[in-house]
Amino acid sequence: MSSIVLRIVLVRSSVDPKQDDKITVRRVDNNLEATYYDSNSGIRQKILLTHTGLDAYVRLICKLYMTDDEPVKSLQFDFLGFPSYIISKEALTKGVISTLQEVAAVVSESVFADYSEGCYCDMPKLTPLSREDKWDSEAWDRNH
Fold first, then answer.
1. Which of 5, 23, 87, 108 is in Cβ range 3.0-4.6 Å of 54 for a Cys bridge?
2. Strand segments (E) across the chain
3. pLDDT tens per residue, the chain (144 residues)?
C-alpha cells in the first residue's frame, strides 16, 4: 500500500466535511496517481501523472480555483512532510502558487529519490581510461 504524497481538500463547508471534495495523490510505481472524489456525485476519477508532474498538477488546481465562478470556500493542501496549508480564493496569488509548486517539487523529488530515470543497474561500474589506453573490441568480444 502506497502512502499519500499529497491530499487536497476542496472545502465547501466548514460545518460538514462530508460536503468537501478531496484529491489524494499517491506514488504508484514510478508515477503518481491522483484520485479526485466529488462529494456531490460520489464519483471517483483517477489520472496518472509522471514522476515530475506534481507541480504542474498543483498549479492547474490553483488556476481552476482562481477562475471558477462558483468556487469552494478554500483549498487545504496537505503535502507529505509539510504542515497543512489552507488558502482562500482572495489570498491565492501567483506568488503563493509558485511556492506551492516549489513544495510539490521538493515532495516529488523526495518521494522519487530511489528512482533513477534510464537506470543501468545491470551494468558494471565504469572504469576511467587513461589517454594511453586503447579500446580492444576483439578482447572485449571474447570476454563478453
1. 108
2. 4-11, 21-28, 31-38, 43-50, 74-79, 85-88
3. 468 999 999 998 778 888 899 999 999 988 999 999 999 899 999 999 998 899 999 999 999 999 999 889 999 999 999 999 999 999 999 999 999 999 999 999 999 987 665 555 555 655 555 555 566 667 666 766
Residue 22's alpha-carbon distances to 12, 25, 35, in angstroms, are: 11, 10, 8
pTM: predicted TM-score of the whole model, two decimal places: 0.76
Nearest to 101 by CA among 93, 90, 113, 89: 93
Beta strands in 16-73 (DSSP E): 21-28, 31-38, 43-50
Which residue matches cell numbers 487545504? 76
Cell numbers at 2, concatenated: 502506497
